[in-house]
Specification:
Layout: H1 6-25, E1 39-41, H2 53-62, E2 67-70, H3 78-88, E3 91-98, H4 99-102, H5 106-116, E4 120-125, H6 140-144, H7 148-167, E5 171-175, E6 183-184, E7 187-188, H8 189-196, E8 203-207, H9 208-213, H10 218-224, E9 229-234, E10 236-237, E11 251-252, H11 262-268, E12 275-278, H12 287-302
Parallel strand pairs: 1-2, 1-12, 2-3, 3-4, 4-5, 5-8, 8-9, 9-12
Antiparallel strand pairs: 6-7, 10-11
Length: 303
């Protein structure tokens, strides 16, 4: 029989008690129904990040978030971002770029992502084939005016960019809003985008909230295309019976709106989802309080 001295026993017991206290005081790391680390899209804190980058990241981590997706780096170098993420105990796995910003700086963006250690570079919004035909090509109205020809042109750009991103050992993804689910001559733009893009060069990040606003059922999309999605955006909206896909319903805390995520997560379990990011775009309470409600919802739905 192995004998343990009183000093060793007390030392081990103290360490075990400390570990238990730390676990009980720290939100669970695998905090959603998919068994994935709890993620946050940093667009949610776009107003405070530029003012206190390190401090904001620490606050996010204290709520139990462990992975983040960037929406701008506010002048920080990859080394500075990595140091800040490491210091907060976060992992930046993905970053968003609108196509209008990505196209002129593809190589530079890929190198930034590679230096940072990203898994994904994501196109967050499409671009008109001919931006000169509208007054404000970056507006929501411009996206809603996109034609089938515009989307086919975007598909071609995505294939070309995806090939370059693959060569740098990352993956390229596309993130939807609502215009993707419009149609022309019976052809739904999103379906055409999936048809024309090479799955080896483009994966999809399904924004479940915007898909619902557009009249879609994310669970059905995940079931119809189980191999095309790698990431989810999870968010909630306060919609009414009169809401239309062109509306911008108020963003709210998870569980405080109209979207039931149980069937969505049920379908996602059968797909190839690697990351799920909470995103809240508007607030009527302090941001960190709202993001705690979001995190608590994700933990509760996992139970």
């Amino acid at each position: 029989m192995i004998r343990i001295s009183r000093r060793t026993f007390l030392k081990t017991a103290s360490a075990s008690a400390a570990g238990a206290a730390l676990w009980n005081s720290t939100p669970r790391l695998l905090a959603n129904a998919l068994g994935l680390p709890l993620g946050l899209q940093l667009y949610s804190v776009r107003d405070v990040l530029p003012k206190d980058y390190d401090g904001t990241l620490h606050q996010i981590a204290a709520l139990g978030y462990r992975e983040v997706e960037a929406a701008g780096f506010f002048g920080h170098t990859p080394a500075e971002v990595k140091q800040a993420m490491d210091g907060a105990g976060l992992r930046c796995v993905s970053a968003h770029y609108p196509l209008k910003d990505l196209l002129p700086k593809v190589d530079e963006t890929i190198q930034f992502g590679k230096d940072l250690g990203l898994n994904y570079i994501v196109c967050s919004s499409p671009r008109l084939k001919d931006p000169s035909r509208v007054k404000d090509p970056g507006s929501r109205a411009a996206r809603e005016s996109m034609t089938l020809d515009d989307w086919r042109w975007n598909a071609d750009q995505f294939n070309q960019i995806g090939e370059k991103v693959n060569a740098a050992s990352m993956r390229f993804a596309y993130h939807n809003h609502t215009p993707e689910f419009r149609s022309e001559n019976g052809v739904v733009f999103y379906d055409e985008l999936l048809r024309l893009t090479d799955p080896a060069k483009l994966t999809m990040e399904l924004d479940c909230g915007w898909a619902v606003v557009a009249g879609q059922k994310p669970a059905e999309l995940l079931s119809r295309y189980p191999t095309r999605f790698s990431m989810l955006h999870v968010k909630d909206f306060k919609m009414t019976a009169a809401s239309t896909p062109s509306d911008h319903p108020p963003s709210t805390e998870m569980g405080h709106g109209n979207i039931d995520y149980r069937p969505i997560f049920g379908a996602a379990k059968k797909a190839h989802i690697e990351h799920a990011f909470v995103e809240q775009e508007e607030f009527d309470m302090p941001q960190m309080e709202a993001l705690k409600i979001d995190a608590d919802y994700m933990r509760a739905i996992a139970g």
